[in-house]
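Hey,

The postdoc asked me to send both predictions to you directly instead of through the lab channel. I've kept everything plain text so nothing gets mangled by the mail client. Protein one:
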Amino acid sequence: MQRRRMDPTARRRLAAAALVVAGLALYPALFPGALNLGVTLVLYAAMATAWDVLGGWAGQLSLGHAALVGLGAYTFGLLTQAAGWQGSVGLAAAVAAVVLAAAAATLAWGWVTFRLRGPYFTLSSIAVAEILRLVATNARRLTGGAQGLFVFSLPRPLGLDLFDRTVEFYLALGLLALALGVAWWLSWSRFGYYLQAIREDEEAAMALGIHPLRYKLGAFVISGVLTALAGAIYGVFLSFFEPRGVFNIELSVSVALMAIIGGTGTMLGPLAGAALLTVAADWLRVIFQQANLLVYGVLIVLVVRFAPRGIAGAAAALARRWSGARSAHPAGEGLEHGLRRASGSPQG
């Protein structure tokens, strides 16, 4: 069996992602007084990149990812606080529990809802998130109910204070690097090409021998685990949270918007969208005060109007125009070429 070699374009994408992560690593040194904004930005970038695994690469529009953020926050918070899982071993076990809980939840969730397509799947994702919010609100003995949950005591692995904003920033940055690594892998791997085929035409993908449910479930598990880990860090960052905050549909919509505005199905697009919307929201809140949401909405409309393929798509178009390069393949041939490479069939 011939070994598939990585596309040179994939190497360039990996180098670009490494440069971005290295640049972000300088943030605490350059902006020590704005670490709250920095942690928020990097966490949202990680969530948006995780959402894009399902919403962008697989084409399954979810507006219920806040359920996974809340699942991660509550699983980690309850195990380390109420159950008393302390020490480095307890902390590692709590993180493992977050991963297992997210994987189990997304498998069950996807098995039921992936039989629905288009807007019906989107509506079902909202319903699942709302059900989990109601469960967390009413299970007072377990979650604290509407009174919320305090995260006030955590061990110090390797002497690190997990409540320190700089430590939280680098934890979030590590998760973002992991999410970008997954997006990079999807950009050239067989799994990624199959997801794109399902996104473009599920019936045609089935005719090629691709099992849509299997690959969509795989994408959902990856997306869910990354999102739940972001939720665990988010819960520590907040120190106090309640169901209305971490299971809120507004959080789901914000994360989806960041990925869509940045450019779905791209490696750095969700990060760019998160940076734009997070920084813009913070800046507009200071400048325009009560009118900030109106201006924020106008900004989103302008981006969608003049960059329908997102920031990443607009940047790629500008780069092609600047270099004078033209695509050597007609539209859609890139995916066809990728599927041929993935299946190992000869190129005609």
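Protein two:
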Amino acid sequence: MNMELWTKETTAEMQNLTNMIVVRKLKWHPEMEDIMQDAMLKLFEKRNRIPVGKSRKSYVCSLVRNVVNDFLRKQYRNPLAEMHRVEKVKPQHGEVIERSYEGFYTPEHLDPWLIASADRVVAEMLPKYQQVLVLQADGFDTNEIAEKLNLPAGTVRSRLHYAKKEGAAKLSQMMR
């Protein structure tokens, strides 16, 4: 594989290809600039593997498409985290935690019955399960939740496990 030095011209060429692909795949999205930057960083990290010549464009297009597809896949898995909402959580010890999200998905994109059912299931749970579920839905990882609630990480993992198990069982009963 022939390699060449990464120059300003190379950067401009990569940026043009990246912009073209991201705009074509996403049309418009609030995080489009971030996705373009992620793709450019990935290209720069792999600069020693980028071929020269005809196969260059195909390699760059594949890499950028994969970055965009990864973003879309993450968003599809957790659409509620992208919706505009404000959550307030009051840990057993400490201040009220408030997080706000504003993103691409709107409530019209989601099934209202499913949202209401999930809200009902969470409302019926013990407060200790509600706290960890809401914090995880807000994007906190297990260690951050443990720190915020002054609990061991193992306890948080256990509560998340049982809360999800209980929630799944109740939702499946509702859907029958």
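Summary for protein two, as requested: DSSP finds seven helices and two strands in the chain.

Thanks,
C.
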